[in-house]
């Protein structure tokens, strides 16, 4: 290497910014003979192709192993004569759960925002399983008014609820948006709506005991090292959709944990779960590089929706989980991956109290 190129290389390494480095690299490339440029391009292409191939192989192997390690529900328990409400049942793991429970002869109420889409799913389930007891009800968990309307109808029409599966959820955009009631949209959809719904139906769930409440959370809660109770609605805090999602899932776990404490000895068990790394529609409309990357990888190495639904089904039907309450499950078993933040009982109580205020829960609606 001549002295000129050596000086250029030393200067290149000393550049403070990637932009400056790129410019110098381009200048060096243009200064090379055409034959050298061609060889350099060939090298870049070969290295790129080799990298893509290696990453693809690694992803395929990882995905295969990950899916093989996915546990399956072996319980053959029938759900005949039992009524199950599933929020967010028109797609993803909610839909997969509904299919399984329909095969077990459960009476299903699909509580969904998109009635048309949910009706197609209900018809598909009825046709595939032969179970005609599949109904659709309007429910938008981001709207407290919709939650109240849904709960009022259920209480007026139903005599029992054996299982309440709180599964509806969204990702989000990196711009904070509010519902008509002034709640941050991700928190409203994933946590506040389910919190209010559970409280409104709690009296009937207790009357129907033994009954179960199953809350779909996520290992995304591990992204948080603290929780600011004054900023559950992100009114003054810096907003990031992934943080809002992680916070909503942490609140799911804490809510389920504290509710299990309140319902001790009532015959109602409450557990939360992580379905795993699953390719679902939740990330299609979400924004942010990290979320998009997660969604992309899930398509290739994640579980199928049927595999992701197994832990929900386990907590809904299995005999061995009928007396377990207040736990966080993953892969059909109690998880050891839950953070200390998520098992802080003092924090769980504070999240409950803050949620009561934010959803406007009246003392007459407290059935615990």
TrEMBL record:
One of its GO terms (molecular function) is oxidoreductase activity. It comes from the Eukaryota. InterPro entries: NAD(P)-bd_dom_sf, SDR_fam. This is Retinol dehydrogenase 11. Keywords: Membrane, Oxidoreductase, Transmembrane, Transmembrane helix. The chain crosses the membrane at residues 44-66. The lineage of its organism: Eukaryota, Metazoa, Ecdysozoa, Arthropoda, Crustacea.
């Amino acid at each position: 290497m001549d002295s000129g190129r050596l000086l250029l290389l030393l200067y290149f390494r000393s550049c403070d910014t990637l932009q400056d480095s790129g410019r110098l690299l381009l200048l060096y490339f243009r200064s090379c003979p055409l034959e050298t440029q061609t060889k350099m391009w060939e090298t870049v292409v070969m290295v790129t192709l080799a990298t893509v191939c290696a990453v693809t192989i690694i992803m395929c192997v990882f995905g295969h192993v990950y899916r093989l390690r996915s546990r399956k529900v072996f319980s053959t328990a029938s759900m005949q004569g039992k009524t199950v409400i599933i929020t967010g049942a028109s797609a993803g793991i909610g839909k997969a759960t509904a299919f399984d429970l329909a095969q077990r002869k459960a009476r299903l109420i699909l509580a969904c925002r998109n009635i048309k889409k949910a009706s197609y799913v209900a018809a598909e389930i009825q046709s595939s399983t032969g179970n005609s007891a599949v109904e659709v009800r309007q429910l938008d968990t981001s709207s407290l008014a919709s939650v109240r309307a849904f709960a009022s109808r259920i209480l007026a029409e139903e005599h029992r609820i054996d299982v309440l599966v709180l599964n509806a959820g969204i990702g989000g955009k990196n711009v904070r948006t509010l519902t008509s009631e002034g709640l941050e949209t991700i928190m409203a959809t994933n946590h506040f709506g389910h919190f209010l719904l559970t409280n409104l139906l709690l009296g009937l769930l207790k009357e129907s005991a033994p009954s179960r409440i199953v809350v779909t959370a996520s290992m995304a809660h591990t992204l948080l090292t603290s929780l600011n109770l004054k900023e559950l609605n992100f009114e003054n805090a810096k907003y990031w959709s992934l943080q809002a999602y992680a916070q909503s899932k942490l609140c799911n776990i804490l809510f389920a944990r504290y509710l299990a404490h309140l319902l001790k000895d009532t015959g109602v068990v409450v557990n939360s779960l992580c379905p795993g790394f699953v390719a679902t529609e939740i990330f299609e409309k979400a924004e942010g590089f990290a979320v998009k990357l997660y969604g992309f990888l899930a398509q290739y190495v994640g579980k199928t929706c049927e595999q992701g639904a197994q832990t929900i089904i386990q907590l809904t039907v299995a005999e061995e989980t009928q007396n377990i309450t207040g736990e966080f499950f993953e892969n059909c078993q109690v998880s050891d991956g839950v953070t200390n933040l998520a098992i802080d009982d003092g924090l769980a109580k504070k999240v409950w109290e803050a949620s009561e205020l934010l959803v406007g829960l009246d003392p007459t609606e407290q059935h615990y």
